[in-house]
From TrEMBL:
This is Uncharacterized protein. It comes from Drosophila willistoni (Fruit fly). Residues 572-657 form the Glycosyl hydrolase family 31 C-terminal domain. Residues 1-18 form the signal peptide. GO terms for biological process: carbohydrate metabolic process. CDD domains: GH31_NET37.
Length: 661
């Protein structure tokens, strides 16, 4: 009895220590949700904080950066709690408390909602990143794609798919190694601050009705959810069930097994009938398999015409026929733009009302294949525009025998600034709607489709491509970021990741050298699909042989990749997860960024450092057979130091008991 009292006093004393402004009697403001042991507690220090608690244990503390009030929480008729500063209010609702099946964990889920953010204000709620103790995952796709993501830096960063930083996919979702997740609703005009200015070691969410969101509204929403499970895996499983969704089917199996061959990185826009024939012939002559040959930019008479330029492709029907005869399927690069110099189709789309306009009625925008204000974007938030675009593509397929398409772009920054869009179901007009509507429209072309942007489209059975990588090794959009982008996409709920061209895109006339090309291929082997454009026969015979060996290794494991696709459809689990997925409490595994899992049974640890011929490898708990030497079995957790990996070697490990399918 006495011990309990002492403990209670101690708890109170610690609390008092934190609170310098208020007296101890006013700080113990804990508000219990009915029929639960979950509390919201207000802490009045230099800034107002709220702390979510389960009994006496703290679940998460959040600092209200610019919300000042001396009010208490008020219980509402629905059992939620409301905190008001006189003009606006925050409502806390307990959504879930208890064991949730499929997660194997007790889950606490609280919704934090402001429904009345006044124009001109920008409320901001901050989470401590606690970098020395915990790791953070998910968040946006980035060029400098640090992982775990607590190292990323953002300043008043509008959070929606955009060209800047290669932000193609980024759900409003973060997860940490303590088992906490944050999910922000799409109705929120979200900005984030992370590790910059006053927000060092913090991740802050804020909302304001400003561009690139609709700046005309007089009041906006700022709604997010905090979930807690016993660890990151349990929390993520709940987030998948509740917010992210899971795929309803999986993409084409032949793309998993055999490489895509794209004209893009190798030939750039200098393609024509002869180039495509030569490319196809070289692939066949060098003894490589294919899933398809992709005709990339530049094939149209003008951008948006969806008609082949006859000076380059005198008879595309015949070309496609002949290339198919050689054993290929043929796909075509497509973008969602119409350049103004494509006069006929531009006029048609404008008159039909199928272009995105700004509020002055101007459709002008630009992209990487136009001058400033010389292009327009099709309005995929309009069903009639979707249908019109789809029909024109179907015609292209029927006339020329094109099997499927690579759909580029889709990010919000390609729209005219301050666009007029059709209202979504939730009646919030957000540029996010345009991303999802584009991706859903093009997904109707089936299992061979690839896109490179996404927004709430995890359910679609299509590949999502990582945005163009550069032919570099490092964090500057180089090889290491191939792995970190893979992990990020998987934890955003997009498991059918299509890595971009092997060796990077070779932009600025810097193609990959042999070493970078081969290390890139190795890193790609245990990812869902291989996509070549640079080719090994421009190097030497050794490069061809090593490329053949790893292409074969990938094909050998295709059944296991497809098995993981099926698992993703059934359970929403990642295909390529970070190592901690099989050891959620393992502190070392939580911090690893240069190894990854395929399913639960394969660990890939590619060499991603220039000049390196060995590397250190961490294996979490379990028994792991060395993929390069079946006689060696490691028992994790273990560090293998200086694992030898000359240029023909990819370190990988297979769980004892592994089954291919
Ligand atoms: C954040 O950016 C938006 C859009 O540019 C702007 O309206 C807002 O004032 C900025 N907030 C801060 C704190 O700088
Ligand atoms: C193009 O090729 C197709 C298929 O071989 C053929 O039927 C057609 O006549 C050709 N068109 C022209 C204009 O030569
Ligand atoms: C490619 O694989 C074959 C068969 O396993 C092997 O004998 C050969 O040494 C490999 N080539 C290279 C360059 O590693």
């Amino acid at each position: 009895m006495k011990a309990t009292i002492t403990l209670a006093l101690l708890v109170l004393a610690t609390t008092c220590y934190w609170e310098v402004v208020q007296t101890c009697s006013s700080i113990e403001q804990r508000y219990k949700f009915t029929n639960s042991d979950i509390y919201v507690r207000l802490r009045r220090g230099a800034k107002l904080q709220y702390e979510l608690m389960k009994g006496t244990s703290s679940l998460q503390t959040v600092t209200l950066d610019n919300f000042v009030t001396s009010s208490d929480l008020e219980l509402t008729s629905t059992g939620s709690y409301k905190l008001s500063d006189g003009t606006s209010s925050i409502e806390f609702t307990l959504v879930q408390s208890g064991v949730v099946s499929g997660t194997g964990s007790d889950i606490t889920h609280i919704k934090v909602a402001r429904n009345d953010v006044a124009a001109g204000s920008q409320p901001r709620d901050c989470f401590t990143l606690d970098q020395s103790e915990i790791h953070w995952f998910s968040g946006p796709e980035q060029k400098a794609h640090y992982w775990p993501v607590e190292r990323q830096q953002h300043s008043n960063y509008s959070y929606l798919p955009k060209e800047l930083d290669n932000f193609g996919v980024g759900e409003r979702y973060w997860l940490n190694s303590n088992g906490v997740f944050i999910f922000v609703e799409s109705n929120t005009p979200l900005f984030i601050d992370q590790n910059t200015g006053d927000y060092k070691n913090k991740l802050c969410l804020s909302a304001t009705a400003a561009l690139p969101y609709d700046s005309r509204v007089t009041s906006s929403k700022f709604v997010y959810h905090i979930g807690l499970g016993k660890n990151a895996k349990a929390a993520h499983k709940y987030a998948v069930k509740t917010f992210l969704g899971q795929p309803t089917g999986y993409p084409d199996e032949r793309i998993v097994q055999y490489p895509i061959w794209s004209t893009w990185a190798l030939y750039s826009r200098d393609i024509d009938d002869a180039v495509v024939r030569e490319f196809a012939q070289n692939i066949v002559d060098n003894g490589f398999e294919n899933s398809q040959l992709e005709i990339d930019d530049d094939w149209e008479i003008c951008y948006g015409a969806l008609t082949f330029r006859e000076s380059k492709f005198p008879n595309i029907t015949k070309l496609v026929e002949d290339v198919k005869e050689m054993g290929f399927r043929v796909t075509l690069w497509i973008h969602p733009f119409i350049n103004k110099d494509c006069v006929d189709i531009y006029q048609e789309a404008l008159e039909l009302g199928y272009l995105v306009l700004d509020h002055a009625g101007d459709p002008s925008t630009q992209w990487w294949n136009s001058e400033t204000a010389a292009a327009t974007a099709i309005d995929f938030t309009k069903p009639e525009a979707q249908e019109w675009f789809t029909k024109r593509l179907v015609r292209l397929q029927k006339e020329h025998g094109i099997d499927s398409f690579k759909f580029d772009a889709g990010e919000t920054s390609w729209l005219p600034p301050d666009p007029v869009l059709q209202a979504s179901e939730s009646d919030i007009i957000s540029p996010l709607q345009a991303v999802g509507d584009y991706v859903r429209t093009v997904a109707s072309f089936g299992a061979m489709v690839e896109v490179r942007s996404g927004q709430g489209t995890q359910d679609l059975p299509i590949f999502v491509r990582i945005v163009d990588k550069d032919s570099e090794w490092g964090w500057n959009n180089g090889l290491v970021t191939l792995i970190t982008s893979l992990l990020q996409m998987n934890l955003n709920g997009y498991p059918f990741v299509l890595p971009d061209m092997i060796g990077g895109n070779g932009y600025d006339d810097s193609p990959p050298n042999k070493e970078l090309f081969l290390r890139w291929l190795q890193a790609n082997v245990f990812m869902p699909a291989l996509q070549f454009s640079f080719v090994p026969w421009t190097f030497d015979d050794e490069a061809i042989e090593i490329t053949k060996n790893f292409t074969a290794l990938h094909a050998e494991y295709a059944p296991y990749i497809i098995k993981q696709f099926k698992r993703a459809v059934e359970t929403g689990e990642p295909v390529n997860a970070p190592l901690w997925w099989v050891a959620p409490e393992d502190k070392v595994a939580q911090g690893i960024y240069d190894e990854f899992l395929l399913g639960d049974d394969i660990i890939a640890a590619p060499v991603i450092i220039e000049g390196a011929t060995k590397r250190d490898i961490y294996l979490p708990e379990g028994q792991w057979t060395d993929g390069n030497n079946a006689d060696t079995v490691y028992t994790g957790p273990i560090w293998i130091m200086d694992y030898s990996a000359p240029l023909n070697t990819l370190p990988y490990f297979i769980r004892v008991g592994f089954e291919m399918d």
